[in-house]
Specification:
2 copies of one chain form a homodimer. By secondary structure, chain A is an alpha/beta fold. The first copy, chain A, folds into 2 domains: 11-179, Rossmann fold, CATH 3.40.50.1970; 186-388, Dehydroquinate synthase-like, alpha domain, CATH 1.20.1090.10. In chain A, 47% of the residues lie in helices and 12% in strands. Chain A contains 15 helices and 9 strands. In chain A, the strands form 2 sheets. In chain A, strands 2-9-6-5-3-4 form a 6-stranded parallel β-sheet, sandwiched between helices. Chain A has a two-stranded antiparallel ribbon with strand order 7-8. In chain A, helix 12 (301-312) packs across helix 13 (321-338). The first copy, chain A, is globular, with a radius of gyration of 20 Å. The two termini of chain A are 36 Å apart.
């Protein structure tokens, strides 16, 4: 276990009717709200009306800014910052999933900053403060509702970049599993894949003596697997929706990372896939992760045996570690297929002609950077991984 | 899953040399410190000197108050409150285990309160604020370093009472596993038992659809079991000490309780055992818990089968649930014995003549109260449980 600090200040308000607390919570922090959301889904499923009603009933003034797209755009963040400054807005309310929340975080750190908010994402500057942010979560996936991360895409150069900083934790997150009943199956599966990926990125580490977080990660993965088909078979299953929603937050609130150093190569590679063709993040991860595993498992085959046995209930072949390890990877891939996700680049129309471009773009900041911690991948390694996902 | 709110503000600073952050953290909250500790152990193992050196190096003014005993006394809390008021102390530093931290919390809520601090523990009044509290943890057990609980004993009537309130969360907890190297084997085992009990109290619930927290609780229990003998065999095993220390906090920081309603009868019963003869809390729990289980397992035999199979790796007898359930309880009892803890009241000299008294005292506040949530125990039930622990 490596030394660590851990403090997650986000207040979670979870369950049926939890949005009724919205007014009380907002009033702790601000008076004038930017009500930030995505496309039309919250208007169709009634969440938009419910939130508006609470804000109106509580006499909270707000300006709306919709239009966040998956892989949220820097241009909309600039627009949000401008609106906040011109209207003395002092609180950002994100109603949606990870893209909306990440966009809200971008606006929130951008408003009090004199420079270009993209500086933070490019690592040129470090945020010191932000406007307070509240969340009404509608898509369990990114874990952004109680994380310190924001991932934004700069459209011109198709650069998708993460920003991780303690100031980014939202002040509160309201999580009503009923708000996820209307999520389409594909989006539900993409969320499940994203949550699994957050757990697996943390799981594959070179740090020894991390039994507690390994056990917690395994438990969370098993719970996602347990509930995936329940929720796809019955989208109104409150319990299964709850399990996935709460596990999605726990997967990414940094507790399960304490004392470990996660990998994150698959995320970095996937970010460039979705920057190229707007594939949903969870779908991209379902393609990249098994390929990454096939490429790196020999680096610590015992950890992959543990993953296979503990998470996937593979019967261990004590005479053949490799067979056991590969069976775990095989089950992960089968799981993705069973929930309707692609597992090959060809399925999403990314051909070999893009591999070099993807590999180049995800080499962060400097030409000689590598990607990932479990195995430090060079550009050549990434191309090999993409070939395994062909 | 039941609706819940969750927010744990305690900052964890974990690892070797983490005490070096002490000055920086204290200065965020106060200028004059009550340095609160227990008996002589921190003077023998060097922790006292290390803390003093950091405080001196950082020019932090402090007054010492040692003398906290296991099952911390109300009288010392009164003394601490007096010292704080007379000396304008604005920060309490607890250096020790659960008793010291609970005592510090008692002082911290007592100082700004005009009435008798015991009101809070008797449920007569609710705390609104406290002095800030920092912790340097030396005994992994109670989880008080990041919990909202304090348990105090009023000596005259031998009443041991818990206070649970959000204001009680410490501001920070410094956790250096090396500070636990010198813990005697028996005290280490008592801590392990206390941690297991915190996990089991949460585990046995009537709430359905709590897969995620069940999985996390099982993982944490398995990790405690994995590491117990490692640490007893080699008290200087840094990794095993780390695992137990961090699991001890996670077990009681309320995350693993989200969406569930824990039981807590065994704790209530044990509190009265240790009020009678000062048995260590963890030792008392090792006696009470298996007896409680033998008395209640039929209430939800499937949950006890799950406990046996998932936590204790009992091979499930699919034709005989009872056999599987009882095997799990048996393994728990064997585990306690294997780490040197008593499992019968006779071993600690509590005879049948005390059973009625214990049963009466743990009926909180009102004569017709019951104890526990999984099964609501009457006085008669408690006596039966004590008989099973004879």
């Amino acid at each position: 276990m490596v030394n660590f600090e851990f403090q997650n200040p986000t207040k979670i308000i979870f369950g049926k009717d939890s949005e009724q607390c919205l007014g009380k919570e907002i009033k702790k922090y601000g008076k004038k709200v930017l009500f930030h959301y995505g496309g039309g889904s919250i208007k169709k499923n009634g969440v938009y009306d419910k939130v508006k009603k609470v804000l109106d009933d509580e006499n909270i003034e707000y300006i709306e800014l919709g239009g966040v797209k998956p892989n949220p755009r820097l241009s909309l963040i600039y627009e949000g910052i401008k609106i906040c400054r011109e209207n003395s807005i002092d609180f950002i309310l994100a109603v949606g999933g990870g893209s909306v929340i990440d966009s809200a975080k971008g606006i929130a750190v951008g408003v009090p900053y004199e420079g270009d908010v993209w500086d933070f994402y490019m690592g040129v500057s470090v945020p010191e403060t932000k406007l307070p942010v509240g969340v009404v979560l509608t898509i369990p996936a990114a874990g952004s509702e109680s994380s310190y991360s924001s991932v934004v895409t700069e459209e011109k150069n198709k650069l998708k970049r993460p920003l991780d900083h303690d100031v980014l934790y939202p002040q509160f997150a309201i999580m009503n599993p009923e708000f996820t009943f209307s999520l389409p199956a594909y989006q539900t599966s993409c969320g499940i894949s994203d949550i699994m990926a957050h757990l697996m990125e943390r799981y594959f580490t070179n740090v020894k003596g991390v039994g507690i977080t390994s056990r917690l990660l395994e438990g969370a993965m098993k719970n996602i697997i347990d509930n995936a088909h329940l929720v796809l078979d019955d989208p109104h299953n409150y319990i299964a929706r709850s399990e996935i929603m709460w596990t999605g937050s726990i997967a990414h609130n940094n507790l399960l990372n304490t004392g470990r150093i996660g990998d994150w190569a698959s995320h970095m590679i996937e970010h460039e896939l979705s920057a190229i063709n707007d594939v949903a993040h969870g779908a991209g991860l379902a393609i990249v992760f098994p390929a990454w595993m096939k490429y790196v498992y020999k680096h610590n085959i015992d950890l992959f045996v543990q993953f296979a046995v503990r998470v996937w209930n593979v019967e261990q072949d004590f005479e053949n570690k490799e067979r056991t390890a590969l069976a775990g990877i095989e089950r992960l891939e089968s799981f993705y297929k069973s929930i309707g996700l692609p597992v090959r680049l060809s399925e999403i129309g990314i051909g070999e002609e893009h591999y070099q471009e993807i590999a180049s773009k995800c080499r962060v900041f400097h030409e000689d950077d590598t990607v990932g911690n479990f195995v430090k991948l060079t550009r050549k390694d990434i191309v090999e991984i993409l070939r395994l996902a062909k």
